[in-house]
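Minutes, project check-in

Agenda point 3 was the complex the collaborators sent over. CS summarized: two entities, 590 residues total, and the question is how they sit relative to each other. Sequences were read into the notes so everyone works from the same version.
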Amino acid sequence: MAEPLFERIAFLGIGLIGSSVARIARERGDIAREIVVNARTQKTLDRVMELGFADRVELDPGKAVEGADCVMLCAPVGAFADLAAKIAPHLAQGAVLTDVGSTKQSVIRDVGPLIPAGVHFVPAHPVAGTEYSGPDSGFTTLFQGRWTLVTPPPGTDEVSVEKISELWRRCGSMVERMEAGHHDRVLAIVSHLPHLIAFTICGTADDLADESRQEVINFAASGFRDFTRIAASDPVMWRDIFLNNREAVLEMLQRFMEDAQGMARAIRWGDAEYIEGMVERGRKIRRSLIQQKQA
Amino acid sequence: MAEPLFERIAFLGIGLIGSSVARIARERGDIAREIVVNARTQKTLDRVMELGFADRVELDPGKAVEGADCVMLCAPVGAFADLAAKIAPHLAQGAVLTDVGSTKQSVIRDVGPLIPAGVHFVPAHPVAGTEYSGPDSGFTTLFQGRWTLVTPPPGTDEVSVEKISELWRRCGSMVERMEAGHHDRVLAIVSHLPHLIAFTICGTADDLADESRQEVINFAASGFRDFTRIAASDPVMWRDIFLNNREAVLEMLQRFMEDAQGMARAIRWGDAEYIEGMVERGRKIRRSLIQQKQA
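CS then shared the predicted structure for the full assembly.
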């Protein structure tokens, strides 16, 4: 077994991502010698102890990070500013602070200024997930074949960047470095916009008369169902993502709405060629995905 | 084995739905004694003979329906008016003409007036599918646990309605009777709108700069992928569906766009409560689906 990357890792928040990393760290042994978990409620911490992937739990985030040489923010991104303020005075000199948030510019904006000198901040985003949340939902193969995007601001300590990259490789992930603003735009189209659409169409269906609503459920297999899997995701996490990647989400939504209006116009005026062209593009993208084995 | 429902069934078009019904008819033996298949190209008909689920193939639709006591239109709905005109003089007295199209008002509008006296027209729609098409794509379990909606206009011969309903039950489907206009509205929200959105968002992504396009493929697992499965469907079939369910599709798209604008506004102005509420509704609908075992 390789030498552990860290002596002690502290997780602040322990949902799908955090508890998957903790399970991997526990199983492999070469990520950290000691695992400390912090969450907002004692109930979650009790459950974490039952699940057996932590050495120690702490209800106070400041206490959780004391003496840890790696601290991983795994809460919804909207909670990061508060958490960072609480832990800043307790962070150990030389520690690496990282996160798993789905928006990166907001994290750099909210957390960056609060980091004490001598602590290294390496923002990262493992692009993996399911529609489940909470400490029970994690599993050790979540990151296999998936990408983790590491988005350090200019001037970040390279040794720390490499340690966090190696942590994700040991979790089974491929690692790519990306500028935070570019990350936010790419994620807006591949993840945030599809989720926004999925939540929205569920609402549109839910607004139909009661009779039709039952029928939506009966006949969901014809397309609607594919949209609802991702619509089952955690509301607070997604609220925070939309609010913290506002510019890019609004831009991608605007582009999509223009394209949808284009389809509406083609349908209204019977422009068969335009419609066929749009459907063909969908197939093309799908074929690319299959060729890249992401589907 | 029960007595076959029909002496001879003729399929006009033999894609996913038609070839699934033909396979079931061949396997069960109690749907029709003889299976005749018509398609637009000899190549498809040759393939059908190789696949072995037809007794006979006919390139001429008129010849295909001669002497058949059941005729099933399985082509894209945009081809129905033409097909109906071609077969009308050849339909046998007392025959039942049915279809599997995804839009029902247009079928009644296009086919209804062309039916000779003494032929019974029973429009129907098996709400089942995959993203695959063509005679190779059919399989005998496609309709199991799914619904077939039968939408006979007022005054349709009840014996014929019951025969078509029984055909679908023998295919493994549940059967429900529905008014054609109501059918078109329900399908617009559960199937046509989700497909329209899926095709559109693929186009939106495809329009991004080349570099981002590769990244869309790399990170598709984060949500986008779920939208692309249904975007792989047959372009001509979908073009025809959109054009032939224009009013309902445009209305549902309009409702959806209003709701998406509502989300855009909430994101722009930071209305956290509104966003959380929308996400919660998505979860609620998803839970209903799971409870009804459609997911």
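Noted in discussion: The domain at 6-178 of chain B is CATH 3.40.50.720 (Rossmann fold).
Follow-up: revisit at the next meeting once the mutant set is ready.
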